[in-house]
Amino acid sequence: MGSFSQEFPFGIMDVVELLHLRIRRRQADNAYTDCPFCGDRRGKMNVNFAKNVWRCNYCGEHGGMLNLYARINNTTNSEAYREICDALQAGDTSWGYGGAESADAYAGVPVRDPHAGRQPDMGIPQAERASPQEIHQTYSLMLEMLSLNSAHRAHLRSEKRGLTDEQIDSLGFKSTPPYFLCRSLTERLIKQGCKVEGVPGFYLHEGGYWTLKCSSRTAGILIPAVGIDGLIRGMQILLDVPFKDRDDPPEKAGTKYIWLSSSAKNMGVTSGSPVHFIGNPFARTIYVTEGILKADIAHHLLNRSFVAVAGVNNVQQLGPLFALLAQNGTELIIEAHDMDKYSNEMIAKGSSRIYLLAGQHGMECRRLTWNPNYKGIDDWQLALRKEKQQKEGENRNLQKGRVFFRQEDGEIPEDISDSPYRRCRFRIYQLLFDADQKTIPFAFKGIRDLHKAGYEQPPASEYQLVCDSELAFPKDWKDTEILEQISAHYGNRVPESYKGRPLASSDVVELDDETGRRYFYIDGRTFEPVRFSPFLAKAMKG
Ligand SMILES: [Zn+2]
């Protein structure tokens, strides 16, 4: 293997750097990095740069340097070779690592790659952005030339996304082209009279030809960002394999969306993070959310008009759009960001900017809140649709006749106390968001997030009593069974008399019977016993 490496214009450490593997220790002819295969984060993967081979001492995976790149990016060794050469020729170690743009979009600053010091302002010549019409023409034709592979179509049709074939086709989703087709695709576009210079994603290759910046590392579904005028302004990619930063903890999902951009390339251009619009430009009510695909899905589920920003704080372009909408007759803006807005300071800030902007253009703004068990408006709507489909003919999951809830089933009959039933009082406490855009870092999250936020126990003073009732159930039931019943009863379609939100993570449930009072913190489907001081919690509303 060692002799082989002489033929390569690069070594395994170049590959390590391209892949953003974290180097923990370095020795004379080898180094130890974290392993991208088993997720080890103690530096168990040995990378030998004398022999250009690697082996993880923890999971046992091993191979050569092309294989390292190819396996992570799900491609072949020969493709890996071409891509690595191309990346290194450009002196661009951050190549393909587009997480940067979404991260910057998030922060709302001009797009620049923070991972590398050799970026546009460091002397890589950039093209002047083409006109909106030119960009639209090039992208439209490019989408026509591309296809949507069956795995991608299946994903979009899956329960998670819930789109129909017609919707998928009308939205124009396509699969990114493989690296080896980028050059010929670009040539065909130029031949057809399209301008590629100044269109995000295209750049002038060192070989003297124009091409598109797509690789196995950035493979995924192309999602067009369309302006209110119907012109395609940009393209996002829903990545097949999310990017992970070397400092990310293993449980972190990584970056799922990037922009199609060529700002790190010769004569390239940044995506500019355009806002997306779908629906009726003259609607009286417009929803604003984060994420183009989310807006597309929610539009089809709700039949409402949506504006999507890429990154909650990427709101500069909302100004001109809001001005136009106000002129068109829009009166109400509905902020429909993910439910993280209750725990994430950054999202909360983004929401308040939307309020401010709407007000500046004389429009009212409201915050949309839904069942916190669903993160995004699309998740929530898909769940509602699924529930509706299942509802027909199906018995309620609740063991009717075996459980009585005083609040909904009326007074629990006295005579059941003679049967093998027993009663228990229960109370539900939920986090109170009294101030505008207030966030609580563990809101709707599990017990680990509570601890991470610095609390040993749920802080009762942040909670409000929302339900104080009683239930009766078979005598032999344990606490867990009682809690599961309460969870099912208040988890989804809540009874009308109930004043709280659907039961979700971070809520506290109290059980109170002859054995005493005990408290449980809801963490997904489990109930963590906690200490809680109900006297500090706010009283129930009227
Ligand atoms: Zn490993």
Question: What does the secondary structure layout of this molecule look like, with pairings?
Answer:
Elements: H1 12-18, E1 23-26, E2 30-33, E3 45-48, E4 53-56, E5 62-64, H2 65-72, H3 77-89, H4 99-107, H5 132-145, H6 150-157, H7 165-171, E6 174-175, H8 182-191, E7 202-204, E8 210-212, E9 220-226, E10 232-243, E11 255-259, E12 276-278, E13 285-290, H9 292-302, E14 305-309, H10 318-328, E15 332-335, H11 345-360, E16 364-367, H12 377-391, E17 404-405, H13 406-409, E18 421-431, H14 447-452, E19 463-474, H15 479-491, E20 508-513, E21 516-523, E22 526-530
Parallel strand pairs: 13-14, 13-15, 15-16
Antiparallel strand pairs: 1-2, 2-3, 3-4, 4-5, 6-9, 7-8, 9-10, 10-11, 12-14, 17-19, 18-19, 18-20, 20-21, 21-22
Helix pairs in contact: 2-3, 9-12
Bound molecules: zinc ion.
Offer a few descriptive terms.
single chain; alpha+beta; DNA Primase, Chain A; DNA primase DNAg catalytic core, N-terminal domain; Dna Topoisomerase Vi A Subunit, Chain: A, domain 2; 4 domains; six-stranded antiparallel beta sheet; globular; disordered N terminus
